Amino acid sequence: MFERFTKDARDVVKGAYAYVDGSGGEGRSVEPEHLLLALLDREGSRGSFALVALGLGERRESVREALREARRRAGLTQAETDALAGLGIDVEEIVARVEQTHGVGALAGGSKDKRWWSGRSSFGRGARDVLERSLRVALAQRDRHIGDEHILLALTTRPGVPAEVLAAHGVTHASVVRVLYGSGGEAKAG
């Protein structure tokens, strides 16, 4: 599948690896959040154009902060946190207690993967799903290659923290499609 990726899409994947490798997260895998962080770093690509057109250019740090907060909550979305609160479970209190005992960011640790034998972080299930969705988005648009814009669209359709954070910042699947393909565009992720 990677042979179908444009240089921009490959750079997003490389950037996602860099976020994992640079965080000192031994045994961590590349997740959708890392793909989003790498997209935020892009300039001069279709994906970065869409983000800037939707007003995210000057609010990138706000997105990064929202991703950090979700990571502190062990990757729970705000919707999941709210649902647990409805059951009487205060996630912030749990995070505070764990961090008091084990240190700040204790719940942000990644799960073990096959990095120990490959020397490189692997893709988590969520990141693989995003990349597969990006292929479906590209095919739906009749694009021969997968660009970083297709990765962005895939991130907006996959339930989880990246889609929630993007939506909270006004970046939804519909708004990205509108910017990239006009009002008649129909990028579907399947």
UniProtKB/TrEMBL annotation:
Database matches in SUPFAM superfamilies: Double Clp-N motif (SSF81923)
Highest taxon above the source species: Bacteria
One term of GO molecular function: peptidase activity
GO terms classed as biological process: proteolysis
The entry's keywords: Hydrolase, Protease
Protein name (Swiss-Prot/TrEMBL): Clp protease N-terminal domain-containing protein
Source species: Streptomyces indiaensis
